Amino acid sequence: xxxxxxxxxxxxxxxxxxxxxxxTYTAVLLDSNLQPVADGEAGEICVGGPGVARGYVxxxxxxxxxxxxxxxxxxxxxxxxxxxxGRFTADGExxxxxxxxxxxxxxxxxxxxxxxxxxxLEDEAVSAAVVTLLDTPGTGGELAGYLLxxxxxxxxxxxxxxxxxxxxxxxxxxxxxxxVIDTIPMLPSGKADRKALPKPELGRLVGGHxxxxxxxxxxxxxxxxxxxxxxxxxxxxxxxxx
Length: 242
Fold this sequence. Notes:
The chain is α+β, with helices and mostly antiparallel strands and 242 residues long. It has 4 helices and 12 strands.
């Protein structure tokens, strides 16, 4: 959809909401069965109106999942499932409650973690992949990928996957780390337990390759490496000038 679909008047002392739909727009809250929720209950925010796009380019399955007929009958045409959760307040405004899916925000960009996982899973050496957002102070968060590999995978898989992400995804969606693990922790619901994933070896960036490391060779390069190490909260020995 277009960036702006709802509006709200901000009043001192009144809780901030995302308001109500703009004129000619509709907003519907749906449950997990894609049915309208009762007043006051939480549901996925779905938007209808002139700002709704035609779909995802060359992704018919994702388009069919996110662009659907309005089960409430309020909208002419399709509505878009935003993945955001909300509920209607007593005065008809929408209170934002968070995300319903795996979307996160990285340095101002909305990122669907499943989209990154899909790129990783295209490699035949990867049997399972989970991507999560790490809370790394001073960086705005870093993406980390966790992989289960086939028994016949080779040592170049991390470098190959990084190259694939660079080709297929914008820079802010390329993971800073790729970790190979033996098992993926699961929740009772059958989804990956991202909070239980092990912390990656910070400083071993996925774009790096052991043979690519170049140590500083003069005072200027040493000073620059020291600045980057302090900013990234790493040791100076982990910063390559290449």
